[in-house]
Fold:
Amino acid sequence: MRIKVLRIDIFLRIKVFLSLQSSSSPSSLQKRYMERLLTEKLIAWKSQSSRKPVLLDGARQVGKSYLVEHLFGKRCFAQVHKLDFMQEPGLAELFADGLNPKSFISKLEIRRNTGVNLAKDLIFFDEIGECQSAVDSLKYFAEELPQAFVCASGSSIGLLGSFPVGKVEFMELFPMTFEEFVMADGNRGLIEAFREQRRNAQVHSSLWSMLLDYYFVGGMPEAVQAWFDGKGELLERCERVTRIHDALIAGYQVDFGKYSGKVHAGHLQSVFRNIPRQLSKNLDGSVQRFLFKGVVERKKRYAELRGPIDWLEKAKLASKCHTLDCRPAPPLSALAKDNMFKLFVFDLGILSRLLDMGYAEHQAQKIAYKGFIAENFVQNELRAQGRYPTYAWQQARSEVECLLKTKNGEIIPVEVKSGERTRAKSLRSYIERYAPSRALKLIGGYSADAGDRGTMVWPLYDAGFLHRL
Structure:
C-alpha cells in the first residue's frame, strides 16, 4: 500500500511540474525558476465547492505574492483582482463603511472600473497586515460568501494583534526547499530520480553537487533565479547572489525597526546576528542549545530575551528545535522546556552570508563547522513540511539531532552527519537506551547499508522526504 501511495504522489508531482513547464513564451524561463509545490495545495483549495479564505504567511521575499498572483491566480482564474495594501494604503477606504463583503466588492468594481465574477475571479489581498480591516473582513467572506475565491498574504501575519481564527485556511510559505531548487534546474530526469529516491553514484553525484550549491544560494526566489538564469561565469553568478543576500538582510534589519512594536529593535538585531555566530561555534558534533548570556548586554536569561526570540520566530526568520533530556514519548511538546532549544536561521543562503561563507568554502567541504549547515538544512526542510516545532535529544555527551514523530505516534531518532562516515555513537546510545522500532541516519553519501542494528541510511538531501516514514 505504501509503494502504491508513493507512486501516486510521484505521478501527481511530475504531472503538475510538467504542466508548469509547458509554456514556450519568452517569460517561461523566468517562471520556471519560481515554481512552488504549494501551488498544488492552492489548486486543491480552489476545487472545493465552498471554502474559507486562504491566509498565506511567510517571511519577506519568499515569493508569496508571485505564487498567488502568477503561479496560481493567472493560471487558474479569469482575472486576479490584486489589492496591495502596502503599495496602495488608500485601499483601506474600501472598508470605511463596514466589512460587508458584497459592499466591498461593489466599491472595488467602481474603484477599478471592472467587474468581479465570483465564480471565475480571484480576489487577492496582498500585504494584508498593513490593513487590519482587511484582515477582519476575512471572517465575513467565510461566513457570507463561502463560494468566493479570496486569498490573502502578508509578511507580518504572526505579529498581528488578531486575525479571524477558524475563519481562514492558514498556509505557510518558506524559502524554496531543496526539491524546489532541483526543479529550478529543469533537469526532469534528475527530478524524477530524486523523488523516487534512487540510489546510485551518478544520481548522488549530481544531487550532492546541487546540495552544496544550495548551501550557498539558499532558497530565496530572487537568489535562486539569479543562480539559474544562465548568464555570466560562476564568479559573476556568485557575486549576484551575494548582492541579493546583502539587500535582503538590509531589508530585514529595516523591518526590525518598522514592525518591532514593544520589542527593542536593537535587541532583535543582536539576537538575529547571534544565531549564526552560535551555530558556527559548533566545530564538532551537534548544534548546542542557544545561550542567552552575551547576546544583549546585561541580559542573561531566557525571560529577558524571550521577546526578540519570539518575534523572530513569528516573523519566520528563525526557528526553534526543542532539546529533550529525558525518554522521548508523545506528546513531545509536554517534555519540552521553554528555555532549552536550538535556534536556526530560516534560509541557508542568508545564514552563509551572515557568516561571510563563500561558494568555494561550501564546495570544498573541508570547513570544520560544516555539520551545523547540514543540521540547519534538515531543520528548514522539516519546517517546510509543516513539522513544527521540531525536537532533538541530548543526555550527557550523547546527542540525536532530530526526533521525528510519525502519524501513528512512533518516534524515530534521526542522526544528521555531513560526511560519509556512518558510525554514530550518539544514535547507538539512544537505541541502547530506548530500543526504537526504527532509526535513521542522514549522511553525505548514498549508501543503502542498513548500518547498526537495522538503522536506515539516507543521503542528506533526502531530508525533504522524512514525511514518508
